[in-house]
Amino acid sequence: MLIHHTIAAQRAALRGRAPIAFVPTMGNLHEGHLALVRQARAAAGPDGQVVCSIFVNRLQFAPHEDFDRYPRTLERDCALLREAGCDHVFAPDEAELYPEPQGYKVQPPSALADILEGHFRPGFFTGVCTVVAKLFHIVQPHIAVFGKKDYQQLMVIRRMVAQMALPIEILGGETLRNAQGLALSSRNGYLSDEQREQALLLSRTLRDMLQRHAAGAALEETEAWAMAQLSAAGWAPDYMVLRRQHDLGTPAAGDALVALGAAKLGNTRLIDNIEGRGA
Ligand code: PAF
């Protein structure tokens, strides 16, 4: 496995190589990321090249968010990636990727990017799309893998690739959970042991929302119930919603549903989602 810190080195190493399967990350890797890398490895085939980027992207953090506190664990990440079958790690520093303030940005449409995560994190998806577009230009992958844990992000990226006619196949990776059902996330590292137990309430409530709605409870009633569940347990929920899988719009009868939630437990904001089928 090769580690590249400059755009020129990464490009030179991939010149003429195909197929290229790419997993963009911000590092601080866990099993969930490694599953995406293994998926990329399988998609690229034995002769393909698997590239993983590690870059904590300032553009997608609001000033009050955890950019400075986000763990930088390059050495450990590289050891895990080598094990998972990665061929190239692209780990630029900020001055390499943003040598001047990034004035050109990729702004996704408001209907998809200013709801849910985008509503609570204004500008988040512009930051994500801008860095992902830039990484796509550098790596020029044929395949890219994004986790379904960031459900809305996966959808925003799929739409960007389709609308910009980028010749990249986007694959969604299933969310990995621990034995109790907690979705793996870099942010779980901020939780105390006690909070890890409490954190199970998020996925449990999303699952219950799908069941309640399938059993006949109205949408608004189900969402209000879920918000109350979390609040009563001391969380500060941002949203707990049922949306249609297709475009995250308000579902009609028969639409395939996804329950999505975001909530703060102490100082840590967790997100999760579970796909289901509505009544
Ligand atoms: O999902 C992430 O870790 C980030 O949003 C991504 C896609 C690597 C862009 O910085």
TrEMBL record:
<feature type="binding site">
    <location>
        <position position="176"/>
    </location>
    <ligand>
        <name>ATP</name>
    </ligand>
</feature>
<comment type="similarity">
    <text>Belongs to the pantothenate synthetase family.</text>
</comment>
<dbReference type="Pfam" id="PF02569">
    <property type="entry name" value="Pantoate_ligase"/>
</dbReference>
<feature type="binding site">
    <location>
        <position position="153"/>
    </location>
    <ligand>
        <name>(R)-pantoate</name>
    </ligand>
</feature>
<feature type="binding site">
    <location>
        <begin position="184"/>
        <end position="187"/>
    </location>
    <ligand>
        <name>ATP</name>
    </ligand>
</feature>
<keyword id="KW-0436">Ligase</keyword>
<keyword id="KW-0067">ATP-binding</keyword>
<comment type="subunit">
    <text>Homodimer.</text>
</comment>
<feature type="binding site">
    <location>
        <begin position="26"/>
        <end position="33"/>
    </location>
    <ligand>
        <name>ATP</name>
    </ligand>
</feature>
<keyword id="KW-0547">Nucleotide-binding</keyword>
<feature type="binding site">
    <location>
        <begin position="147"/>
        <end position="150"/>
    </location>
    <ligand>
        <name>ATP</name>
    </ligand>
</feature>
<comment type="pathway">
    <text>Cofactor biosynthesis; (R)-pantothenate biosynthesis; (R)-pantothenate from (R)-pantoate and beta-alanine: step 1/1.</text>
</comment>
<dbReference type="GO" id="GO:0004592">
    <property type="term" value="F:pantoate-beta-alanine ligase activity"/>
</dbReference>
<keyword id="KW-0566">Pantothenate biosynthesis</keyword>
<dbReference type="InterPro" id="IPR042176">
    <property type="entry name" value="Pantoate_ligase_C"/>
</dbReference>
<feature type="active site" description="Proton donor">
    <location>
        <position position="33"/>
    </location>
</feature>
<comment type="function">
    <text>Catalyzes the condensation of pantoate with beta-alanine in an ATP-dependent reaction via a pantoyl-adenylate intermediate.</text>
</comment>
<dbReference type="InterPro" id="IPR003721">
    <property type="entry name" value="Pantoate_ligase"/>
</dbReference>
<feature type="binding site">
    <location>
        <position position="60"/>
    </location>
    <ligand>
        <name>(R)-pantoate</name>
    </ligand>
</feature>
<feature type="binding site">
    <location>
        <position position="60"/>
    </location>
    <ligand>
        <name>beta-alanine</name>
    </ligand>
</feature>
<keyword id="KW-0963">Cytoplasm</keyword>
<dbReference type="InterPro" id="IPR014729">
    <property type="entry name" value="Rossmann-like_a/b/a_fold"/>
</dbReference>
<protein>
    <recommendedName>
        <fullName>Pantothenate synthetase</fullName>
        <ecNumber>6.3.2.1</ecNumber>
    </recommendedName>
</protein>
